[in-house]
Amino acid sequence: VTTEPQNRNTFGFEKKDYVGAKSTLCVGCGHDSVTQGIINALFESDIHPFDIVKLSGIGCSSKTTNYFLNQSHGFNSIHGRMAALATGAKIANRSLQVVGISGDGDSASIGLGGLLHLFRRNLPMVYLVENNAVYGLTKGQFSATAELNAKAKVGHDNHFHGLDLCALAITAGCQFVARSFSGDSKQLVPLVQAAMKFNGTAFIDVISPCITYANHEGSMASYDYVRSHKISLQELGFIANASTVTADYAEGDTVTVSLASGSELRLRKLELAYDPGNLPAALARLYEAKLREEILTGLIYLHSDSRSATRALPDALNLPATPLTRLTEEELRPQPGTLTTILRDFR
Amino acid sequence: MKLNDWSLKIATSNGSGSQSANLILVKSLFRMGIPVGGKNLFPSNIQGLPTWFTIRTHPKGFVGRQAQNNLVVSMNPQTVLQDEASVLSGGWHLVADEALPKIAPRPDIRRFLIPFRELSKDTSSSIRLRKLLANVVYVGIVARLLKMDRSVVEETLHDHFKGKDSVIESNLKAFAIGWNYAETHLPVAEFPLRAAAIKDGNQGKILIDGNSSAALGLLFGGCTFMSWYPITPSSSLAESFESYALQYRSDDQDRHRFAVIQAEDELSAINMVLGAGWAGARAVTTTSGPGLSLMAEAAGLSYFAEVPAVIWDVQRAGPSTGLPTRTMQGDVLAAQKLSHGDTQHVLLFPAKPEECFEFGRTALDLAERLQTLIVVLSDLDLGMNLWIADEFQENEKPFDRGKVLSAEGLNHVDSFARYADVDGDGIPYRTLPGTHHTKAGYFARGTGHTETAGYSEDSDNYARILTRLKKKMDTARGLVPPPVLTQSQPSASRTLLIAYGSTDFIIPEVQELLSQRGLQSDYLRLRAWPLSPETATTISNYDRVFLIEQNRDGQMRDLLRSEGSTAMTSILSFDGLPISAQAVANDICVHLGKEPL
Fold this sequence. Notes:
The complex is a heterodimer. Chain A contains twelve helices and 13 strands. Helix content of chain A is 29%, strand content 20%. Chain B is α/β, with parallel strands linked by helices. Chain B contains 20 helices and 23 strands. In chain B, helix 2 links the parallel strand 5 (69-74) and strand 6. In chain B, helix 7 packs across helix 13 (353-370). The chains are: A alpha/beta, B alpha/beta. At the A-B interface, strand 2, helix 3, helix 5, helix 11 and helix 12 of A face strand 9, helix 7, helix 9, helix 11 and strand 17 of B.
């Protein structure tokens, strides 16, 4: 009898099998830390890496899908269209687990329309934005998530309102909304693991500083700024194979949220009054955070009210369990004689 | 007396409910065995603006638009003057009495005032219904004048409103009122037109629009994914596909073996198709000109990342928003080059409902075989108007799913390189996401890439990939539907007419009109781009070549020139109306120094 060595996971893979191409991002880029967090989260998950597809649009963040899960399928598409690409891929093959990585240019500007409609449709996927409030590849322009009065590296101020992607996600119908920080892997890893187990769109806005164009004094997305303005709502722990789940949102300072296939997310509340199941309260707290110049992180909103839950898109479309891509030709062709029946209406 | 050789125009206003009435009239003629076609000329409007419906019968089945009509029914005061002008000499004009403004008499036609409002007052107690039923009153009058088979019309009416007994009853009543009115108030014996039933005349035929035909073609062609954004004149294709699929593509637990997603815009619609095509679905988006423009960037991605996709473009009159409810073949060049850089696409040109059905499957097969975008160019005239077609036959041959390596297949290859030209035809092998094999994964991208799908900015490598993509387009020449050459008898003609798409409908009539001027012509109908290898040679065999198309710039002529066919004359129609055989024949006569017809 041979036993798997300790450094292999459920599927017999080693950590190095979850690594991708060498990053070509700047040394110190927040995105590389996020990539490492994703590798850790996926290595420990019970999802087969060959069932995962990595999708992205265009930008520094969108390059990162190349930096993990080298043996999985990936598609680095065009600017702002990852949400639509994901919708097509997932609906075509519902057994795929979609991990989408985007940036604040890709998602909050050119792709904002598609993103909001993804939330509306509740497509099961992890949609992770690496948000640095700046355009990196085109060298330092403000993005739509840059805060009002933030300073560009070359000195001028941002005169426009900064979009809060989490607030937008909640109002657009997203049922799993979180924010994290590239420098906080203890929080990010369980969030990604929980997101992978959520049957619907799981949105994570990860503040991920740009070391080159937005790490200066006056930037409101620099490492120093984020560290000094960040508030963690909870301490998070993901449990893959929890025994029977007892309660959601129990009283007290620790709550347990049950997710798919017996997994759980445990939240030890750091802000005792905060209830991520309360939508109006979540929006109010986000708004308050903006006024106080706080960066609120943790699980911001998780839908808990079955009355207004939208079904996940494959169910709303009433798809069979078998992916559309695996239906046989016989299953796709209408019954013999159908054409004759239909054409009768045209006689 | 004109027997089954006349055209009829009905002028109404949009939203007045004339569509059912007109459909019943056309269908009744069809069921009488008469060759007939129906065209709806409608505004971009929901209620109030003028709309016309024309019906043409011809013993040889000519269905091209006629500039003037033998019988005109005017229900709309807004247009009655121009409608009167469109009555052919010797024709009749029936005018709703409230529609008649001060109008000078035309001694060469006969005009009758019909009190439609008065006649429909007994059809229903509801004012709204009475307005709708006024349309059925004209059906009754026209049917009686044409001596149509009354029982056929009544049966058609019955079928049209199947299951709604009270509606059937009030419609039958309105129909009888019209019929009886004509009988008692109009000199029916003097009416110059007649619809004469032809026994077995339309045996094995159907009366259908191109969009419904395409929807059925996609259903039977194995389309599993459709995303679309509403736009005239393509919306009815997507809606029709969804309703057929709901009925005929559900499993025994009523689960849907297809997905239709109404997207937020055409950008998303096409990118959803790319996601689905990449994952292995047979995926289509339907659109028209403005939507096609929005899809440009993704079209380039499909070409360069080699993702199967189909755009079904039901063309309308551009540029820009143009005439949203009028027809055109104006997207040929835009579609062929859709996107920046050296992008090229395969085009299909269905010319009739049978081909809308057939190409539904052909487009999906080609997209998967060639791993690229296929653009099908239908148009409003073909897509939304009614045509007689041969009953469709299901193609029993297995779908072509192209070069896909399964996990099992990967066991038998030494290595897998996504973009390598293994077979020398320019078409690489692909794997589908979710394939459990260590060799299966690859990273698709719109950026420069190596044969193994790695990121690359290497010049030689980039040029090599572009060259292979061109080779793939050459392979396509042998796979697309070849052109159809119809030679005149005796086959000594030195004149060739070239057309494609819905222009085909008028060509037999054009040829007949030309032969009345002593000119025999052969006819080459293009069905796809790129051209089959022998096409240029065929064209070069003729002394005189006329390329007839429905756009201003001779877009297909430009494409043919790029293939070396230079000596040809463009005959163009671009007023937004369906093309007219008479006008085309006249143009050709002028070019040949012959007297116009």
